Amino acid sequence: MASIVLNNVDKIYAGGVKAVNGLNLEIKDGEFMVLVGPSGCGKSTALRMIAGLEDISGGEIVIGDRVVNHLPPKDRDIAMVFQNYALYPHMTVEENLAFGLKLRKMSKPEIQKRVNDAARMLGLEQYLKRKPAALSGGQRQRVAMGRAIVREPQAFLMDEPLSNLDAKLRVSMRASLNQLHERLGVTTVYVTHDQVEAMTLGDRVCVLRDGVLQQVDTPQNLFDSPVNLFVAGFMGSPAMNFTYAELVRDNGGAAVAFAGYRLPVPDSTFAEKPGLDRYIGRKIILGIRPSDFEDAGSASGNSAGWVRVPVRANVTEELGSEINVLFTIDAPPVEHKDTVAAAHDGDDEETTLPLTGDKSLWTARVNARSHVRPGQELELVVDTHNLHFFDVDSGLSIGHEANIGR
Ligand SMILES: Nc1ncnc2c1ncn2[C@@H]1O[C@H](COP(=O)(O)OP(=O)(O)OP(=O)(O)O)[C@@H](O)[C@H]1O
Ligand SMILES: [Mg+2]
């Protein structure tokens, strides 16, 4: 096992595309690091540079205590798992698992032991004599993982390994991957464009955009305190709601005003977000996560900081335990380049409503006890402790520690 460090790594492809731009990233020994971002942001390029499948144009990559810039892939002691499993079709599962070890001239008993261990770990024991064509997609992906595991490498590098599987299988493979990582503790770099996968798998998650690192942190911290509009809009599903708003302070205290609503801003928020008070009297971009709403009728207790927001439900999406309530507010949609970039990805089927230019579509995620129906008037409550504020010009999160002094 080993740490992986990227120092100011660049990749410029022939033709001048800067796919990765000054990337600094430290992946700790044993850590599960996820690289996430929209299509074309440079995730695969970054991973392939770590693997040695792609030359680096600038900077330095260190695996363990070796600078590997000029080391060929086979000498880097890493194992890669791809989206297309790339199994040998004419070989049985057992032969597929053993193949790489045979090439390395490992002894037969050692090969047998490693193959059996991996097969047991992955629940592949009963399939060892089958060929890939006789396996399901999930089973094939397990074999592909098995081939990486038997090598006992210093690190696993995985590029969207689950994206060919159907949704249900993806969830169960995600759980298996988590268990596997618990068990083996091997440093893993995992690429996905799926932010849910990123959140559930990563010890930490690195968000990339156009080859530039936006933020790297634990899933919870990315969710709770995104550094800018892009990360705020990209992480979390349904996506964060945005609107232009004005921050005001009068006899009633501080509040944020938008679309005819006025939400008080708690004092604690000003304490947590240094510099926010300088925006009083100015326009900001306000962000509210769908999960920070609740139906006033089914909200448990009346917690301090919850404020009522009457809306009219346009569309309701019933998810069993929760309901997504889509409603419009009387404010033009935020058209910041960062919110647009974040929204243009992900495979969530966005519900599209015909909107006139002066209304924005928002989502509230409420408890299924709500029984709200489309067309109904509804009182939502919103947790004002979790409001997010962004600078209109820079798109940076106001009061985020990474942005203070910028
Ligand atoms: N061999 C290449 N030559 C030139 N440009 C390339 C090459 N490979 C990738 N690119 C460009 O580099 C950028 C990053 O590509 P990359 O494959 O790393 O993105 P990605 O984040 O993995 O995207 P996806 O989610 O679609 O897999 C893109 O703009 C892509 O068009
Ligand atoms: Mg890719």
From TrEMBL:
- State the Gene Ontology terms under molecular function: ABC-type transporter activity; ATP binding; ATP hydrolysis activity
Q: What keywords is this UniProt entry annotated with?
A: ATP-binding, Nucleotide-binding, Transport
GO CC annotations, alphabetized: ATP-binding cassette (ABC) transporter complex, substrate-binding subunit-containing
| Cross-referenced SMART domains | AAA
Kindly list the residue ranges recorded as spanning the membrane: none
Q: Which Gene3D superfamilies match?
A: 2.40.50.100, Nucleic acid-binding proteins, P-loop containing nucleotide triphosphate hydrolases
Q: What InterPro entries does this protein's entry cite?
A: AAA+_ATPase, ABC_transporter-like_ATP-bd, ABC_transporter-like_CS, ABC_transpr_MalK-like, ABC_transpr_MalK/UgpC-like, Mo/tungstate-bd_C_term_dom, NA-bd_OB-fold, OB_MalK-like
Q: Which superkingdom, per the lineage?
A: Bacteria
Domain ABC transporter span(s) in chain numbering: 4-235
Example GO BP? carbohydrate transport
Q: Is Transmembrane helix there in the keyword field?
A: no
SUPFAM superfamilies, alphabetized: MOP-like (SSF50331), P-loop containing nucleoside triphosphate hydrolases (SSF52540)
Put simply, this protein is called: ABC transporter ATP-binding protein
* Native source organism of the sequence: Microbispora bryophytorum
